[in-house]
Amino acid sequence: MRVKIEELEEFYWNIKKPLEWLTKTGKGIYMPSKPGILFEASKKSELRPFFSRLTNKNVLLDAGSGDGLSTIFFGYFKTDIIGIEYDDRLFEFSKTFLEMIKNRFPIKANISFICDDFMKFDFNKVDLIYYYEETDENFITLADKFQSDAKDCTLMLVLHDPTHKKADLNRIGYLEIPPEYCFSLYKK
User: Could you read off the pLDDT of 30-50 as tens digits, one per residue?
Assistant: First the structure.
């Protein structure tokens, strides 16, 4: 990856100050993005099926894109990305942040942000889904929608707490990043 993750994160933390007070949104809980963890996960064989499909032939949905940093991180893999965020403050920050990033770290992917509830989005339009789980309840609702609406062979990568409830999905990959994070990879 051309862009050094450390530089991207440092740039992010220097401009993120306006969001520090924001933790609860209209649909869930906002937690800062973790591109360093995503970058480490991208190098692991357990999650290779997901990261190998981040090409210009596929579209990724960042469900609950928050501040946009994870969405932008995925843009360096040259895949088209749609970030959907319900909270209008985070949505506006994401768009501004994307423009600032483009000026400093060129991105070749098409990235767009939508201010809406991702549960209203047609999952059939994407090949990959990324979700940073904040509550079991939200994840179970998302898992149900993934199972019913996503097209066959869609992959969903979930960053979560190790104690999260298991969904009745086809999990094809699992990776722990001690002490507090895990990734689960699901296939429809």
Answer: 777 777 888 889 999 999 999
CATH code of residue 118: 3.40.50.150
* Domain residue limits at 34: 5-187
Task: From residue 14, give the alpha-carbon distance in Å to each of 19, 104, 112.
Answer: 11, 14, 23
Residue whose structure tokens are 């965020």: 85
Q: Which of 142, 172, 162 is nearest to 61 (CA)?
A: 142
Q: CA–CA separation, 125 vs 37, rounded Å?
A: 27
d(CA 179, CA 140): 23
Q: What is the pLDDT of residues 55-80, one digit of tens each?
A: 888 999 999 998 898 999 898 888 89
User: How confident is the model over 102-121, as pLDDT tens digits?
Assistant: 888 888 789 999 999 999 99
Q: Give the total number of structural domains in the chain.
A: 1
